[in-house]
Design a protein that fits this description.
The protein has about 375 residues and is an alpha/beta fold. Helix content is about 50%, strand content about 15%. Strands 2-3-4-5 form a 4-stranded parallel beta sheet, sandwiched between helices. Helix 8 runs parallel beside helix 9. Its EC number is 3.5.4.4.
């Protein structure tokens, strides 16, 4: 009689299980992931006033409460405090280092973390000094905790410094900056306002993603792809507006293009609910988009504001859609395929870390059968 192993189909990955899985994060904001205690420390050290409370637990609860308004604009208002305490090289390096530590402890093996250098110059730092301070923190954290963190430098879409930031991305691309992004309120600030920056990046063979299809609809996505040439879409939730319900669902021209071109969608389920881009996890478009074969990735957006981690985002999807290890590995491989690092680096992590790591977790969840 032979004996084999089968995965128990009535058991799903638990949050503790998921924390052990090797994960990849593409959409995480540095100024949206500070530890509340660090905000309090930095405010005291740098003389920053205006925090609603100096008790770390109460402060963390305040951020979560303020972020659940259903409005992208109100959600973004909470960043005044995190950005306010990130105005010195020491603060930036500390926050970047702790970011790497927190992600590594959550099982993330590769991350791309974005921030807007122009928001950290209020106390006299130059753009270069800001970038160098953040890269130092990521490098130290990478060495200490065994995680690879690449930086995405972000331009604010309502400002006019995108060319400066694009040049910054190219200048530091061999030092740890892996790409460029634009962020901020979408309505009234289309990505085409920054067309010169995107054309420059394309001429320089540089990577970039664009926040699109979160606070605004299909025109935002269309412009990001067809006018600006985005490699990835930050969020992209509203692509669902171009899919007609049915059996099977019918894809419009734009949705079909996004799927067929394998344009990665950087989806952030909890954040999308907080900003009103989705109603609930169970109703989030990620379920349908995954079924239709879009290149969907799972992300945190702002861990502080959303009170979340990448493991928790996956656990919510397991609960809502009944996903198992195969689906979680699929999301993770999607993310690593879409990362802004070299092809050999992506292959090394997929074949040497991600697939073996998930295989080990599947094996632990198996039971012997006769």
């Amino acid at each position: 009689m032979s004996c084999g192993y089968l995965l128990q189909m009535d058991e799903r990955p638990t949050l503790d299980d998921i924390r052990r899985a090797p994960k990849v994060l593409l959409h995480d904001h540095l100024d949206g992931g500070l530890r509340p205690a660090t905000i309090v420390d930095l405010a005291r050290e740098n003389g920053y006033e205006g925090l609603p409370t100096t008790d770390p637990d109460s402060l963390g609860a305040w951020f979560a409460e303020m972020s659940n308004s259903g409005s992208l604009e109100r959600y973004l208002e909470t960043f005044s405090h995190t950005v306010g305490v990130m105005q010195t090289t020491e603060a930036l390096t500390r926050v970047a280092y702790e970011c790497a530590e927190d992600l590594a402890k959550d099982g993330v093996v590769y991350a791309e973390v974005r921030y807007a250098p122009e928001l950290h110059t209020a106390e006299g730092l130059s753009l270069d000094q800001v970038v160098e301070a953040v890269l130092e923190g990521f490098a130290q954290g990478g060495r200490d905790f065994g995680i690879r963190v690449g930086a995405l430098v972000t331009a604010m879409r309502h400002q006019a410094r995108s060319m400066e930031i694009a040049e910054l991305a190219v200048r530091y691309r061999d030092a740890g900056v892996v790409g460029f992004d634009i962020a901020g309120a979408e309505a009234g600030y289309p990505p085409t306002r920054h067309l010169d920056a995107f054309e420059y990046l394309q001429r320089e063979n540089a990577h970039f993603t664009i926040h699109a299809g979160e606070g605004f609809g299909l025109p935002s996505i269309w412009q990001a792809i067809q006018w600006c040439g985005a490699d990835r879409l930050g969020h992209g939730v509203r692509i669902i507006d171009d899919i007609e319900a049915g059996d099977p669902p019918v894809l419009g021209r734009l949705a079909a293009y996004v799927r067929d071109k394998r344009i990665p969608l950087e989806m952030c389920p909890t954040s999308n609910i907080q900003t009103g881009a989705a109603k609930s996890i169970a109703e989030h478009p990620i379920g349908l988009l995954r079924d239709l074969g879009f290149r969907v990735t799972v992300n945190t957006d702002n861990r502080l504001m959303s009170g979340t981690s990448l493991s928790e985002e996956f656990a919510k999807l397991v609960e809502a859609f009944g996903y198992g290890w195969d689906e979680l590995q699929w999301f993770t491989v999607n993310a690593m395929k879409s990362a802004f690092v070299s092809f050999p680096e992506r292959l090394e992590l997929i074949n040497g870390v991600i697939k073996p790591g998930f295989a080990q977790l599947k094996w632990r969840g198996a039971r012997p059968v006769a």
